[in-house]
Design goal:
By secondary structure, this protein is of the alpha/beta class. Helix content is 37%, strand content 14%. The chain has helices spanning 25-36, 48-55, 72-80, 108-124, 159-183, 210-220, 225-228, 230-237, 270-284; strands at residues 16-20, 40-45, 62-66, 85-90, 128-135, 189-193, 245-248, 258-260. An eight-stranded mixed β-sheet has the order 3-2-1-4-5-6-7-8, sandwiched between helices. Helix 5 (159-183) packs across helix 9 (270-284).
């Protein structure tokens, strides 16, 4: 893969992108780059005040809308108020939190990172004309989907394993969505991306000593948010393989310019992916209609 960066972004004039979690970090870098290429961007964020600060320099091309992925009522309200868009970028996420619950009683990491985005995508599917990009993570390799206890109600909670499960769910969802779109004869595509190791606010909310450790890691190893956003931008705008997975191609997949990325054996388990899909529909109450 060549050194693809924002200078390679095709003209996005007249196109609309919805980006979740665009108030900081990777999401903010993503909307800045897209608006710089002429796109209209919808910053779908829980923290509206912070999102307004990101949107202000972008002028009329940027609109801020309230979206709390940890609350299915908020997800439904956002979807009902949305007209259309060309691309949905499921970017928002939380990482390695202490044990918390969403408004609907889901474990916070799988509830926000996966179930919130699953519901949002399903509710918006007929309003998205081109593609859905879901941001996963290299941490999916430590994840295991427990279909009997997805929300850590019986297991002893372990924050990093919960994060790994949530990001594995992101990747499996993106691939299963691609398979179902293809089976339905849809022209829409689903693609996954990951940022490698990027320095963002994501690493500062564990509420533990790990925040200090990750701060040091950010200082010594991480690339900046602009570099970390490149795989997402590539997946959202380039001529990519439907159902593909894209990330940095440099050192151990943690840094560098975007290209095709490998993934764990578990991420390719289609039987578990189907089970996760069925469970996600049951938990969220959102059933996908591929006929629209």
């Amino acid at each position: 893969m060549s050194r693809w960066d924002t200078s390679n972004l095709p003209d996005q004039s007249g196109r609309t992108f919805i980006v979740t979690g665009a108030n900081s970090g990777l999401g903010a870098a993503t909307v800045r780059a897209l608006a710089g290429a002429g796109a209209n961007v919808v910053l779908a964020c829980r923290n509206v005040a912070k999102a307004e600060q990101v949107a202000a320099p972008l002028g009329d091309r940027a609109v801020v809308r309230k979206l709390d992925l940890a609350d299915l009522a908020s997800v439904r309200a956002f979807a009902e108020a949305t007209d259309r868009a060309d691309v949905l970028i499921n970017n928002a996420g939380v990482m390695a939190l202490p044990e918390l619950r969403t408004a609907d009683g889901f474990e916070m990491q799988v509830g926000t990172n996966h179930l919130g985005h699953f519901a949002l995508t399903g509710l918006l599917l007929d309003k998205i004309s081109e593609r859905i990009v879901t941001v996963a993570s290299g941490a999916h390799i430590i994840g295991k989907i427990d279909l009997d206890d997805l929300n850590w109600e019986r297991r002893k909670y372990q924050r990093w394993q919960a994060y790994g499960q949530a990001k594995l769910a992101n990747l499996m969802f993106a691939r299963e969505l691609h398979r179902r779109l293809t089976a339905a004869g849809s022209s829409k595509i689903s693609v996954a991306a990951h940022p490698g190791y990027a320095s963002t606010e994501l690493q500062s909310h564990t509420e533990s000593i790990q925040d200090a450790v990750m701060w040091l890691g950010n200082l010594l190893l991480a690339q900046n948010a602009e570099m970390g956003s490149l795989p997402t931008l590539y997946a959202a705008t380039a001529d990519v393989e439907p159902g593909g997975y894209y990330g940095p191609t440099g050192w151990r997949g943690l840094r560098g310019y975007p290209g095709a990325s490998g993934s764990s054996k578990a991420s390719r388990d289609e039987a578990v992916a189907r089970g996760l899909w069925d469970l996600s529909e049951k938990l969220t109450g959102v059933t996908y209609d591929f006929a629209k």
